[in-house]
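Q: What would this chain look like folded?
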Amino acid sequence: MDNVLVIGAGFMGGGIAQVVAQGGYTVYLQDINPESLERTMAQIRWSTDKLASKGKIKDSAKTVQDRINVVKDLSIAPKCQWVIEVVFEDEKMKKDLFKELDATCPVETILASNTSSIPITRLASLTKHPERVAGMHFFGPVPMMRLVEVIKGEKTSDAVFKKSVDFINSIGQYPVKVMKDIPGFIMNRVSGVAFREALSLVENGIATVEDVDKGMHYGFNWNIGPFEIADNAGIDTYVRVGRSFAALGAGDIVAASPLMEKMLKAGRLGRKVGKGFYDYTPDGKQVPFDVTKL
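A: My prediction, written as structure tokens:
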């Protein structure tokens, strides 16, 4: 079974490492922050224990956990057949990383980005082998969400694209094939417009956060509403992605809102800090909060 390096041990990186390990792969999870690695591994242990107790993973929790190896640098990269970067949504940071990986990894290694907005073609532009760079945009929380957008850059080879789709299938996720490399790909363009309208309804006093979320759940069969999705992803992530969209000329789908900036300044970053569009109790219970009073 192939070795997979996941770069970035945040909310998304940890989830990706978990589902890849559940798929039977040997995983190396890298981050320069020891605290992030420790916190994420604790979350993975909790998640896999819970899933195993419900019979939702085929192997034991310990077997899955033992497949994940914590590393503090990228020296393992040349020994991996797959590298998935999950760093901040910063184009320069990602480009520099791909340039480094391209120089150190064998040409057979497939390099993938979990970017949610930046075209893969741009990220591969500094590499000598752009044909082996593809997009794999996971959705969080990854162990609970089966969707992965697989993006074909302008120079991504057909063989690499097919292997990437097959890889996503092999870990039990559903690959949505993005055949044209545009900012935001497919799902974030759709959800971005929906969130923009939802935010406007709340800001203008037409509806509450809770009622919009409940309306989308009961009326359109969404598992969770747009504001719950935002809290799961992180308000800081939403703002960062929005700025990226705007810089890429896709500002029409951005939820440009003073309220989002107020939440950012107030530290209401979502579920990961216990407060966002909702407040969250220590046991994870969701409590309504009036964000218009910020």
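The CA atoms of residues 121 and 154 lie 6 Å apart.
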